[in-house]
Amino acid sequence: MRKTQITIDVELDENHIPENITWNAQDGGIEKEATKATMISVWDDKTMEALRIDLWTKEMPVDQMKMFIHQILVSLGNTYQRATGEEDVAQWMEEIAEEFAVKSAIKM
Fold first, then answer.
1. pTM (two decimals)
2. What is the 3-state composition of the chain as percent helix, strand, coil, each rounded to the nearest 5?
3. DSSP 8-state secondary structure symbol assigned to residue 48
4. Less Cβ crowding at N or C end of the chain, within 10 Å?
């Protein structure tokens, strides 16, 4: 069996707030790539719940965080469609993402 690794390194300040985040992906040729935010979700099939880690640096601008969230919402709809084949629910999720974009003033 072949294995690969994706890692995320987080530097914290004295108050445990992320100052720097970098990530590495062996197969993607990514090494110590800086980012201002990350969201990781894993499925725990024993407890039947999603476990999450949401991190962002104190330098992450609010307008970029809004765009980040919007793009995640869009990608969730795409992932849902690929995983289930339920185009109608995926379309509804995309509509929610667009409503978020309007309400958060990303789009008019």
1. 0.88
2. 40, 35, 25
3. T
4. N
